[in-house]
Model the fold of this input.
Amino acid sequence: MVKVALASLFFCLAGLAVPLVQADIKSYEFAEPEMAQRFVDLTTVLRCPKCQNQNLADSDSIIAKDLREQVQTLINTGQTNQQITDFMVQRYGNFILYDPPLNKATLVLWLAPIGMVFIGLWALWFFGRKTHVQGAMLSPSEQQKLDQLLAENRTPGRD
Amino acid sequence: MNTTTKRLLMLLPTLLAFTLGLFLYQGIGQDPNKMESSLIGLPLPKFNAQTLVSPSKNVTQADMLGQPALVNVWATWCPTCRAEHEFLLTISKQENIRIYGVNYHDQRPAAQQWLQDLGDPYVFSVFDPKGVLGINLGVVGAPETYLIDAQGIVIDKLTGELNERTWPPLRSQYLSLLQETN
Done:
């Protein structure tokens, strides 16, 4: 019962959080409504350089506020999303992107998970295979001997 | 498959796990705030702004050229800037280091008062109340210090306090730049 109450409380709060974030965005003015949506998109995928784990939309730090205004200005002056992203990367590096590009420095990050899956599959195959190998390793004479032993020890009447 | 190959194969997952462990281990203890500046190797961004001291006098990036120098981003609201101020005064006076200031997101009277009270280590300070130059420099917060060569190319960047511990690596670069210039 307590669990249900807690869960519903959680969902109520989670529901509240969304309008709060959007209210902040309303204070930024745009020439066209489509631009406001781009602003939301961009400030969600751009990371605040000061605060490690917040995007530009969520952070209250000075730099995030400056960069939000910069994004707003760039959108209003007709820059495309790609141009705005490039502008940010040029100044703050790839750190500012939540979705890092595939390059030399990030290759390990991108490939490691695939590598892990392969290691896992390989391990499954390697350790799973063992039992089969041992079973198959009996030579015909050994197999004959085994059958004989089994036959000798068979309790009468049980099969 | 012979036994040796099989044994080696059995070691493989352990080796891989060990390698991954090493890779992750070298990340532990690294300062997540320490970021390579993307401006390194590039010229100072263009700007045209008032100096802190006089609203009627504008300066540009060209006014910072001619000699290697430090560009120090500071503000009166920044406690670490207060902490490093004494050190900036020392190196500008005793070691004759050229330092330009970028007064970042600040109030002009408060910043002028600060320099009057504490002393002014800067050749001049650019007044950047909206952080426009800050964004173009890739400033994340104050204090930050950039080392530039005589042509205004950014050579290195220090995030955080300049002091006896953080200055020597910048100093040696500054001195070799100075030798190249003369």
Observations:
- Residues 18-23 of chain A have pLDDT under 50 and may be disordered.
- Helices of chain A lie at 2-25, 33-45, 62-76, 81-92, 107-136, 140-153.
- Residues 4 and 10 of chain A are 10 Å apart (CA to CA).
- The interface with chain B takes residues 49-50, 52, 61-63, 66-67, 70, 89-93, 95, 108, 112, 119, 122-123, 126 of chain A (CB under 8 Å).
